[in-house]
Amino acid sequence: MIRPEGQPILTAAAMRAAEDRAIAAGSSVGALMERAGAAVAEAVRRLASGAPVLILCGPGNNGGDGYVAARVLKANGADVRIAALADPRTEAATAARAGWDGPVAPLAEAGEAPVVVDALFGTGLTRALDDAVARVLGETVRAARLSIAVDLPSGIATDTGAELSAVPDFSLTLTLGALKPAHLLQPAAARCGTVRIIDIGLDRSSRDWSMTKPVIAAPTAADHKYSRGLVVVIGGDMPGAAALASEAAMHAGAGYVMLFEDHAASTPHALVRRAWSAEAFAQALDGKRLDKTAIVVGPGLGKGDIAAAKFAAALDSAYKLVIDGDALHLLDDAAFARIKARPTPVVLTPHAGEFNALFGAVSGSKIDAARDAAARSGAIVVFKGPDTVVAHPDGRTRVALGASPWLSTAGTGDVLAGTIATMLAANTFAPAEAGVWMHSEAARRLGGAFIADDLARMLSAVRTSV
To answer: Is 395 left (phi over 0), alpha (psi -120 to 50) or beta?
Structure first.
């Protein structure tokens, strides 16, 4: 079994294409089913620790995987039984059913078991489960001490992560061949439990991958404050937000952080503070390296003419740029055209409400929505949330593994903006992804009931560990 970090993500259509390529290269649906079912059986055998196993089989190939798993488990001495929704309807699943020499009970008579395996429906489901089926699935899973979904929990939309019907919480999901979007996108991701990948020998080429721990270079003896990266934060009506972004940049490893702020705010002494004016801003950036400087605009910026002028000054500059919070509402198609013409990258960091206001409501996959937004804007789009997606203008996306729900508190987005700006200024590989990972890891280490100030400070420990 393969952990989900740093793995390709395949949609339902991409999985079908990968299977077609494998068949064209000499494999067969039956051979793929044998590999999948045998691997599921081995995982169940080890995790069940001798407890009785109930496998719920559907009429398609997901059910066929279940029949194979049951046969292999029984051959290895396991106490296993099957309850099926209907007779198999595919050639491969029919052959797998024929290989099972035990009884098959109707799904309505499934009863309970310590270990339950859901092989009803996997990738490609497009409609809700019948109420009776959803009820049996929910009752058996909730009664089990260990519940395992084969490929996806039944009732989940593969590509969007939507719940098509009521879905219980599983202990483990064994995804076949590759990650699917629903393993990472909410609300489905919360139902999957621990996710592990079973390699069945498919070509997993994809533009979409899950995030993994970044590699960030440590300072060397030759470094100084400017070579480690200069982050410039432009403040506004809510000074605490800009202060949080600044402090996050400092703790994330920036060599020099400068805050343009007209209002008093409690900040570290190491932070360089200046009063805002267009002239002071231009003077501060004069002669600074394009490759080692990043600007943050938006946290607490406010509205009105002064805010718009500050945003315009940031966009007019040639430096790397993180646009967050209030500044996102100042973007339009003309600004996108300017972003596309800039010599250095721009990162947008909208949460769902900001994203919908800027790009329109998401009606399908969050991954596709982020990808389209990046292409339209010419920027790297960090579509924030418990399932953050980072999309690049060239079509690549990276999806974060589940974030801490304790991040749902004021100021954590400001911390993320400062962290990403630091990664940009330091020329870190995949800077937006690195910033998202560090932000999430800081939250994980804090545990719970933290505030954004705690999150910013925890970045120091995270930064030294990567």
So the answer is: left
